[in-house]
């Protein structure tokens, strides 16, 4: 994820924060990685498969309204070949300990991640870094959603106005990794 805050905001030459001067434009881009977990035993692995396809990087571009939350949502194909079509999803960011954090040099900006087990959603269950969201069910009928629904889940990324309004000028980026496992 990348974010850029325009030089309209900032700090004075002595490093003190100038009231109202840290507001600017934020450019945000998030690189998404995905991985799949398979059950440990070979027999279970053959019947308990999950697959995520159709993810793309998130680009918020220049965010000029720092007093409102910025939200990007995308739908993807999440397929689970289990008896219940069940799966779990775990997210980790590129911040310390997997925190959902963007960086611009030494500056940091937090973001939130939500998951919805249905496609075309703009809100969902909040994910915590490295904590599985369990009990999800996939509506996908084929591994890459070539037949049946074209997408089956939504990933929602939020930049809260509180974080945006405190951001210093710069271009912010980070990586979000998603792991999915069968249930």
Describe the structure.
This protein is 7% helix and 46% strand. It is mainly beta and 183 residues long. Strands 1, 2, 6, 11 and 13 form a 5-stranded mixed sheet that branches. It is elongated, with a radius of gyration of 18 Å. The N terminus is likely disordered. It contains 2 helices and 13 strands.
Shape: elongated
Query: N- to C-terminal separation?
Result: 29 Å
Low-confidence stretches: 1-26, 35-47
Largest sheet: 5 strands, mixed
**Averaging pLDDT over every residue, what do you get?**
80
Q: What is the N-to-C succession of helices and strands?
A: EEHEEEEEEEEEEHE
Q: What are the salient characteristics of this protein?
A:
7% helix; five-stranded antiparallel β-sheet; mainly beta; 2 helices; disordered N terminus; 13 strands; 183 residues; elongated; five-stranded mixed β-sheet
Quick recap of the structure?
With 183 residues, the chain is mainly beta. Helix content is 7%, strand content 46%.
SSE blueprint and pairings:
Layout: E1 3-5, E2 26-36, H1 42-47, E3 49-53, E4 58-63, E5 70-81, E6 86-93, E7 101-104, E8 107-110, E9 112-116, E10 125-126, E11 133-137, E12 153-159, H2 161-166, E13 170-182
Parallel strand pairs: 2-13
Antiparallel strand pairs: 1-13, 3-5, 5-12, 6-11, 6-13, 7-8, 9-10, 9-12
């Amino acid at each position: 994820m990348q974010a850029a805050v325009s030089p309209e905001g900032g700090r004075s030459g002595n490093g003190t924060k100038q009231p109202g001067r840290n507001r600017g434009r934020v450019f945000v881009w998030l690189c998404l990685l995905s991985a799949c977990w398979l059950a440990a035993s070979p027999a279970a692995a053959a019947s308990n498969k999950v697959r995520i396809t159709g993810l793309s990087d998130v680009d918020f571009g220049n965010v000029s309204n720092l007093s409102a939350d910025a939200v990007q949502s995308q739908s993807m194909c999440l397929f689970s070949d289990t008896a219940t079509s069940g799966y779990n999803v775990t997210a980790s960011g590129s911040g310390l300990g997997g925190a959902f954090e963007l960086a611009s040099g030494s500056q940091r900006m937090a973001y939130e991640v939500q998951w919805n087990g249905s496609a075309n959603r703009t809100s969902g269950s909040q994910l915590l870094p490295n904590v599985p969201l369990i009990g999800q069910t996939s509506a996908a009928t084929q591994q890459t959603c070539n037949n049946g629904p074209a997408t089956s889940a939504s990933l929602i990324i939020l930049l809260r106005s509180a974080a945006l309004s405190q951001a210093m000028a710069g271009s912010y980026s980070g990586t979000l990794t998603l792991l999915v496992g069968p249930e």
